[in-house]
Design goal:
- The chain has about 160 residues and is an alpha+beta fold.
- The chain has two domains: about 40 residues, no CATH class; about 80 residues, Sandwich (Immunoglobulin-like).
- Helices cover about 20% and strands about 30% of the residues.
- The strands form two sheets. It has a four-stranded antiparallel β-sheet, with no helix packed on it.
- β1 and β2 form a beta hairpin.
- The radius of gyration is 33 Å and the shape is elongated.
């Protein structure tokens, strides 16, 4: 009976189509796909080697106490006159432009990591503030905006009367 099972198995194997194993077929397919992507990116009419436009945005901290909301933004290398602050409703917007300092007179840059350009950062404040009492200062590359809260949003302790 074992011989019958063996013969049946051999018959099934003989009926199957055999395919040639090509070990580099997948590698060749990957190579073709990489070549196509490379051509799409760097081919004629493409801007693969041109610098990409980078959107620069300062890092921001927003903190809140019982009577004020404070916003701190890192804007190193700028002057206060190049920064604009606006408040519309509960949205505080900080805008500015960090100008490039480099002059390319015979210099070949090997690396440029510092960011330059215009930025606009809008933040929803966590509480209603007194727009006419907002104060801003700039020191050592950090812009600090102090926004006093409106009276109606300041926490008010309520005394409990015991009977």
């Amino acid at each position: 009976m074992n011989n019958n099972k063996y013969l049946n198995l051999m018959m099934e194997v003989m009926d199957m189509d055999l395919t040639v194993w090509r070990p580099f077929r997948e590698v060749t397919r990957l190579r073709r796909e990489m070549d196509r992507l490379w051509e799409d990116y760097f081919g004629p009419g493409r801007r693969g080697l041109e610098p990409m436009e980078e959107v620069w945005s300062p890092a921001v901290d927003v903190s809140e106490t019982g009577d004020k909301v404070t916003v701190k933004a890192e804007v190193p290398g700028m002057e206060a006159k190049d920064i604009e602050i606006n408040l519309v409703g509960d949205i505080l917007t900080i805008k500015g432009e960090k100008k490039s300092e480099r002059e390319e007179k015979g210099e070949n840059y090997h690396m440029v990591e510092r960011s330059y350009g215009s930025f606009s950062r809008s933040l929803k404040l966590p509480a209603a503030v007194e727009a006419d009492k907002i104060e801003a200062s700039y020191k050592q590359g950090v812009l600090t905006v102090v926004c006093p809260k409106k009276e109606e949003v300041k926490p008010k302790a309520i005394e409990i009367k015991a009977e």
